[in-house]
What we know:
31% of the residues lie in helices and 37% in strands. It is an alpha+beta fold. A 4-stranded antiparallel β-sheet has the order 1-2-5-6. Strand 5 (34-42) and strand 6 form a beta hairpin.
Amino acid sequence: MDNQGVFLEIIPQEKLVFTDSYSEGWKPAADPFMTAIILFEEDGAGTHYTAVARHRSQEAAKSHEDMGFFDGWGTVADQLEAYAQTLAK
């Protein structure tokens, strides 16, 4: 899926917010899909990773789920954890 979205908020090492509701130059997207919020929180023993997807409708959320959203984002989280483990050594 091509994503021509934009970042709405970037707080280094804490938060990323991006959406496909707009494209470059803040042009509204013809068929926006979602806004994602990625949070990173240090807890002393590691980093908690939280991913939130907000959809424009229940139908868009269902479509995202049908495309494999949970498995796909879960795989990304597992890969991120495996990579982070290599950095800790």
